[in-house]
Specification:
InterPro entries: LipA_acyltrans (IPR004960)
Strand content: 15-25%
Number of domains: 1
GO molecular function, one term: acyltransferase activity
GO cellular component, one term: plasma membrane
Number of helices: 13
Order of helices and strands: HHHHHHEHEHEHEHEEEHEEHH
Shape: globular
Largest sheet: 7 strands, mixed
Enzyme class: transferase
Number of strands: 9
Protein name: Lipid A biosynthesis lauroyl acyltransferase
CATH class: Alpha Beta
């Protein structure tokens, strides 16, 4: 579930415990589902471009004043120390603009197709996707929360790569079904989506074993992951993408959906990453994970205002070192 919608419509975050005593949880779930349907219907009625502009304008006006924007400022001071305060403020405003647009574009996912102009997307690296589709077999498509990441699966599916993914299911099953229905309509096929957790992990392994394609967003902090450098600092990173790629000896294809206008995107696909072959599994996972972080860092430097700087990506000791003025790690 996309993070902003989870904050608005997930009962884990929106309902105080005492409210559960007033009405049955099923009633709250139904009410939240109706509220979400209303919001999506209103946004859909505006059209993709106007909905995107509205979402961006609202988020850009409110977001920079929220406490979480201080997290983004600290992250930027750590990762891109060459930026002055004004540049950081511009990037943070852009982050909120992109986030608001991403939410507002959600009901338009099924209508965002490959087009020459206007709402939709274009592509760089089409030959890479077509080659993988022709080759067949398991593959892993890695990306990050850049631009509108929700447009990635339906866009990639256009080239015959039907990409399943692992997602965090909301506590509200009504909301979950609404969002899953939108995703499936956008992809145009019944693609399995795996809930985050042990069961989802087992299902994703079985999916790759059967020759499926798995999409993974690799840019979020994972406390029980492995340490891998990002912007020159250690960052706890999920090793699953690297571990699965090595387990199944399958291609790892990087790509992201860069925003180039209101509800307008460019899908940028890069050649598969080379798989380490030293035979030392732990070291090979670390090497491949670092390579993914390097690709991710490059993307972020190209469009820093389109990445989610709002989450605490680096460990507390690293951030404390920033405050104390400790020299950047090698």
């Amino acid at each position: 579930m996309t993070a902003p919608l989870r904050l608005l419509f997930d009962s884990r975050t929106t309902l105080p415990p005492c409210w559960h005593e007033l009405l049955p949880m099923k009633v709250w779930h139904a009410m939240q589902g109706q509220a979400l349907r209303l919001v999506l219907a209103l946004l859909k009625g505006l059209g993709a471009e106007r909905a995107s502009d509205l979402g961006g304008a609202v988020a850009r006006r409110i977001g920079p004043y929220l406490p979480v924007s201080r997290v983004a400022d600290r992250n930027l001071r750590l990762a891109m120390p060459e930026l002055d305060a004004a540049a950081r403020r511009r990037i943070i405003a852009g982050v909120w603009d992109n986030l608001g647009r991403t939410v507002a574009e959600y009901p338009h996912l099924p209508s965002l197709k490959r087009t020459q102009s206007g709402p939709g997307w274009e592509i760089e690296g089409e030959d890479i996707l077509r080659a993988q589709a022709a080759r067949g077999g398991a593959c892993i498509f890695v990306s990050g929360h850049i631009g509108n990441w929700e447009v990635l699966p339906p866009a990639v599916a256009t080239f015959g790569m039907f990409m399943s993914s692992i997602y965090r299911a909301p506590a509200n099953p009504v909301v979950d079904e609404i969002l899953l229905s939108l995703r499936r309509r956008a992809i145009g096929a019944e693609i399995p989506l795996f809930p985050k957790g042990a069961a989802g992990a087992r299902q994703s392994v079985a999916h790759l074993r059967a020759g499926g394609c798995l999409g993974m967003l690799i840019d979020q902090k994972m406390n029980d992951g492995i340490e891998s450098s990002l912007f020159g600092y250690p960052a706890m990173t999920a090793p699953a993408a690297a571990a699965l790629a090595l387990k199944f000896n399958c291609p790892v294809i990087p790509g992201y959906m860069r925003r180039i206008g209101p509800a307008r995107f460019r899908l940028i696909v890069e050649p598969p990453l080379p798989l380490p072959e030293t035979g030392q599994r732990v070291e090979d996972i670390a090497t491949l994970t670092f390579a993914m972080n390097q690709v991710l860092e490059h993307w972020i430097r190209v469009v820093p205002e389109q990445w989610l700087w709002l989450h605490r990506r680096w460990p507390k000791p690293v951030m404390a070192a920033l405050e104390d003025g400790i020299t950047r790690a090698a």
